[in-house]
Amino acid sequence: MATEALTLQLDTKAVEAYRTASDEVKRKMLALLSVWLPVFTDPRRTDLGRVMDDIGTAAQARGLTPELLDAILRDK
What we know:
By secondary structure, the protein is mainly α. The protein has one domain (12-74). 67% of the residues lie in helices and 0% in strands. The chain contains four helices and no strands. The longest helix has 19 residues, at 23-41. The two termini are 27 Å apart.
């Protein structure tokens, strides 16, 4: 998958969480953003439930399992 840089304005807590995260956690954060951002910007997806279903489907297609998600959420 091709990648390119993106600058985002985030709240201070989010920036600090990213800056202090390990390389592995940063990779996980970026993977989740790569799944979520396209879903949220698709004008055909306005229903929150459908958006959440689409995010889950896309994440599973990219290899995210419930166990991996749990590990990501528990990793600080």
